[in-house]
UniProtKB/TrEMBL annotation:
Assigned keywords, A-Z: Cell outer membrane, Membrane, Signal, TonB box, Transmembrane, Transmembrane beta strand, Transport
SUPFAM superfamilies for this protein: Carboxypeptidase regulatory domain-like, Porins
Keyword Transmembrane (UniProt): yes
Pfam families attached to this UniProt entry: CarbopepD_reg_2 (PF13715), Plug (PF07715), TonB_dep_Rec_b-barrel (PF00593)
Gene3D superfamilies: Carboxypeptidase-like, regulatory domain (2.60.40.1120), TonB-dependent receptor, beta-barrel domain (2.40.170.20), TonB-dependent receptor, plug domain (2.170.130.10)
Limits of the TonB-dependent receptor-like beta-barrel domain: 414-869
GO annotations of cellular component type: cell outer membrane
Bilayer topology term: Multi-pass membrane protein
Phylogenetic lineage: Bacteria, Pseudomonadati, Bacteroidota, Cytophagia, Cytophagales
InterPro entries documented for this protein: Beta-barrel_TonB, Beta-barrel_TonB_sf, CarboxyPept-like_regulatory, Plug_dom, Plug_dom_sf, TonB-dep_rcpt-like
Localization annotation: Cell outer membrane
Transmembrane spans: none
Name listed for the protein in its UniProt record: TonB-dependent receptor
Length: 923
């Protein structure tokens, strides 16, 4: 006979067990706190449900909340500098976790520069890699990717330009002092298409085609990895200076919205920006992360119009020159007032400064596991961005009779260049296990288009009083499609080697470049003449692309690569890579790389690399042609840019463009002192042969040039005053050193401090020239192919040094970020040696940023701060006053007059102090 007590007890136990099982089986919400070994809160710790993409991160007090978690799940806690910990829930709904310090994981794990199946800390790699986290990206009020990198990565440099046509809207960006087209940009490890724009004006990167990184919303970025090493053998053409890999967000932690507003102390440069990011799980098998951005930035006016007459706009732009009589000053003031009152201009509409821009951008990053048993996953990422802008060209004085029309603009006018940049991209792929290899098949498509519309302008050659005042001037477009197939596998105990990581694959790419002409009025030569000579054809400020400029050119590229990496011993890591490529338009190239890292001690290692690389000439450099008005040696000139197939270029003895070839050397050390201090120092030398540059302007004033231009006229347009073209004209050597030091300190309960010191020192020298027989045989042309102005721009147009010092302090819910950056000096020179008196050195300057932040509640954070705290400006640019048809004539510049003129291209912009506030909301 059964015992009733035992029976009841068994039933109760069974009921409790079934209840527990039911509780574990259903999804629950887990809350808790993460501390370090000293019991202090750990903000920014990643909390992830094992085997899924369901995750979150801890707040400023180390607290977290994670919903939709099975009671039987295991949570994974991870953070830089800490040992990753796996915690089974066993039905618990609250946790307190203590993470132990990890001496070997104090730095970010990187994927750029190595195809190993397991990532390495950036101080354990064979090549130097900077890692910029999402937290660093949003710490200050720089809101464009290029500006963010300029103030964080010392080897990276980009400055907003002014009065440079399309370059006003696409910032030239460089790495290690080389060109914008000598750094390769990746997104999620896949090649990013370049901009359609070729920079033909007098700015850093003249003659180059870069990548417009500013079309990527910062809200979409998880981190940015900057590989400071030649990597053409690993990633292909363009990676001479290094690689920038933008990793997109892939979390599922809900919705984050932020809004930033600010302006300069001169009440211009107003910024309003709204960002949003949302991450969602797909049934524990994938994720979708969506980001969006709206940004509106108004112009910055630093023309000095409050104290200067408009006659000097675009030239001196400062106070009245010394030595003028009272009557002369009154005459200029009267003209100034007439321009404002009679022509209806507002001073704010006649300016020299950065452009108005408005940006709408969106990005999606997603992945979904199709077959868990073999790890087969489909992934997608893509974005669309539209950016409109408006910038001023050079002011056309009423005395510039061939460029103006008194019936339309009796007091002169300022043309405006209105741009529209449309950028789209998509990456789609499959990855999974194939015969023991990690396989990745992908297709990447991207397109960038730049449209020009010119307003407040005229075509002066049309009959007097008949010219429209606005024109569509044409469009540039570049598109690229890249198909990749890659395999990676780590082998163990391969002969005498304990491990060998093998990677190999292939790539097929199609590039296409188009020029679409503008409306006829933007380029035609009409019948109007001034003093017996034709008036200027085309829209002033930016003449439209002509039907003769129109083109649609494509090429293909086939490549194969092999990459081997081995821990030869416990102390020695070796990486060997090779790549072969064939371009349909100029032939083949093979490049290779050998890199190694040797641990002298556990906390001290040497690393170095030797590689050769190449950069194929871009389609834009090979085929671009147009006519533009440029300010050169103190005068406005109509300048013709011809491609290398043009009879004019061939008449100068310049042949087809060929690839640039480079040899890279680097040697560095990495060290760790104590628990959290790290130091890296890497020296490098980069020799580039047959470097592609845009030549100096060959003037019609030279008899040999005039003969060529006369023999090859351009029907339907004015005779040009100068001609320029692309050529493999110079051989250069760049030497430098990068130094980065980090320290993480714990100052007390709930208090933390991160200190960073980083610096880049570099020098580029032109070692020799590649000319032509025709130029060499004409003594008057020998210094024109690459004149002193172009050489100074290449050698000294970017800072030769940059130092970054920063401190990130946090106490409970409060944070303070302080950063100061020293931009080294730059130099400019005039093309004409007889005008060397206006050569100028712009002094080095420190620019300091400060941000204060508070996490008011878990869902709401507020930041306030100032960029350029001490309102530092670059040196002003002084120019020869004998230009632009000015009636005043003085031939020398003394110390009194210097510093009274406009700002030109410089190291860090001309905005001055910028105050801002940012609100962050997490849902």
């Amino acid at each position: 006979m059964s015992n009733p007590f035992i029976t009841r007890t068994g039933l109760v136990a069974l009921l409790l067990w079934l209840t527990a099982v039911a509780a574990w089986a259903q999804n629950i919400t887990i809350t808790g706190r993460v501390l370090n070994t000293a019991g202090q809160s750990q903000p920014g710790v990643t909390v992830l449900e094992q085997g899924t993409t369901n995750g979150t991160s801890t707040d400023g007090e180390g607290r977290f909340s994670l919903s939709n978690v099975p009671g039987t799940a295991t949570l994974v806690f991870s953070a830089v500098g800490s040992v990753t910990q796996q915690v089974p829930l066993n039905g618990r709904t609250t946790l307190e976790i203590r993470l132990a310090d990890n001496q070997t994981e104090l730095n970010e794990v990187v994927v750029t520069g190595s195809r190993a199946t397991e990532g390495r800390s950036n101080i354990l790699t064979t090549s130097p890699v900077d890692v910029i986290s999402a937290r660093e990206i949003r710490a200050f009020a720089q809101t464009d990717v290029t500006q963010i990198l300029t103030y964080i990565a010392p080897s990276f440099q980009s400055t907003r330009q002014t009065v440079t046509d399309g370059t006003d809207f696409v910032d030239p960006a460089t790495l290690r002092g080389l060109g914008p087209d000598q750094v390769l940009v990746l997104v999620n490890g896949k090649r990013r298409h370049t901009s359609a724009l070729v920079n033909i004006n007098g700015t850093p990167g003249r003659g180059s085609v870069g990548t417009d990184m500013n079309v990527i919303p910062p809200a979409a970025i998880k981190r940015i990895e900057v590989l400071r090493e030649g990597a053409a053998a690993q990633y292909g053409s363009d990676a001479i200076a290094g690689v920038i890999n933008i990793q997109l967000k892939d979390d599922t932690t809900g919705v984050n919205v932020s809004s930033t507003a600010g302006q300069t102390t001169k009440s211009d440069g107003q910024l309003f920006q709204a960002d949003a990011n949302a991450g969602f799980g797909l049934g524990h098998r994938g994720f979708v992360n969506v980001s969006g951005q709206f940004s509106n930035r108004s112009f910055v006016d630093r023309s000095g119009l409050d104290t200067a007459p408009l006659i000097y706009l675009g030239t001196s732009g400062g106070a009245y020159p010394a030595g003028l009589s009272s009557q002369q000053k009154l005459d200029l003031k009267a003209r100034d007032n007439a321009l404002v009152t009679q022509n209806g201009f507002n001073r704010r509409d006649i300016r020299v400064g950065s452009a108005d821009t408005r940006t709408y951008g969106s990005y999606v990053n997603a992945a979904y596991t199709l077959a868990p048993s073999i790890g087969l996953e489909a992934y997608f990422s893509g974005g669309l961005t539209r950016r409109t802008g408006r910038s001023g060209a050079l002011y056309r004085l009423p005395t510039a009779v061939t460029q103006s029309d008194p019936a339309v603009y009796p007091n002169g006018f300022l043309p405006f260049i209105n741009s529209t940049v449309n950028d789209g991209s998509a990456i789609v792929g499959l990855r999974g296990q194939v015969f023991g290899f990690q396989a990745d098949l992908s297709n990447t498509y991207g397109r960038n288009a730049l449209r020009y519309d010119i307003s407040n302008t005229i075509n002066a050659s049309l009959p007097q009083g008949t010219s429209p005042t606005a024109f569509y001037a044409g469009e540039l477009a570049f598109q690229q499609n890249t198909t990749n197939l890659g395999f990676t596998r780590k082998f163990t105990d391969v002969g005498l080697l304990p491990t060998v990581n093998v990677a190999f694959g292939g790539e097929f790419r199609v590039d296409n470049f188009q020029i679409n002409p503008g409306e006829s009025g933007s380029y035609i030569l009409g019948s109007r003449q001034v003093n017996g000579a034709p008036a200027a054809a085309g829209s002033q400020g930016f003449a439209g692309y002509r039907p003769s400029d129109a083109l649609n050119q494509s090429r293909t590229n086939v490549a194969g690569y092999v990459d081997l990496e081995s821990d030869v011993t416990d102390k020695l890591l070796v990486d060997v890579a090779g790549r072969a490529e064939r371009y349909s338009d100029f032939g083949s190239n093979v490049s290779g790389k050998v890199a190694a890292r040797y641990s002298i001690l556990d906390a001290l290692a040497l690393r170095g690399a030797i590689s050769n690389g190449f950069r194929a000439p871009s389609l834009q450099q090979r085929f671009f042609t147009n006519s533009s008005t440029q300010f050169t040696s103190g005068e406005l000139r109509e300048v013709l840019t011809t491609n290398n197939n043009d009879p004019i270029t061939r008449a100068f003895g310049i042949g087809p463009l060929k690839q640039e070839k480079s040899t890279n050397y680097s040697l560095g050390l990495t060290a760790r002192v104590g628990r959290a201090f790290t130091l890296t120092a890497d020296a490098y030398q980069i020799d580039i042969r047959d470097r592609i540059v845009l030549s100096s302007q060959f003037s019609r004033g030279n008899a040999a040039v005039a003969a060529i231009l006369t023999a090859n006229p351009r029907p339907g347009q004015n005779p040009v005053q100068g001609v320029q073209f692309f050529a493999n004209a110079v051989n250069t050597r760049t030497r430098g050193v990068d130094i980065v030091a980090n320290e993480r300190l714990t100052l007390g309960a709930d208090s933390r401090l991160t200190l960073t010191a980083a610096a880049n020192f570099n020098e580029t020298q032109v070692r020799s020239f590649n000319s032509s027989t025709f130029i060499d045989n004409n003594a008057s042309l020998q210094n024109t192919l690459f004149d002193r102005a172009q050489r100074a721009r290449l050698e000294n147009g970017q800072p030769r040094s940059k130092i970054n010092l920063s401190a990130d302090y946090g106490y409970k819910i409060f944070g303070l970020n302080l950063r100061t950056v020293r931009f080294g000096e730059v130099q400019t020179k005039d093309a004409d040696p007889n005008r060397s008196f206006i050569d100028q050195t712009f002094a080095a300057k420190w620019v300091t940023d400060l941000t204060l932040s508070a996490q008011i509640i878990k869902q709401v954070g507020l930041s306030v701060g100032v960029n350029n705290l001490f309102n530092v400006y670059p040196d002003r640019l002084y120019l020869d006053p004998n230009n632009n048809e000015q009636s005043l004539n003085y031939s020398t510049l003394d110390a009194t007059n210097r510093g009274r003129f406009v700002y030109g291209s410089n190291q860090f912009g001309m905005n001055g102090a910028f105050y801002f506030a940012r609100l962050n909301v997490t849902l």
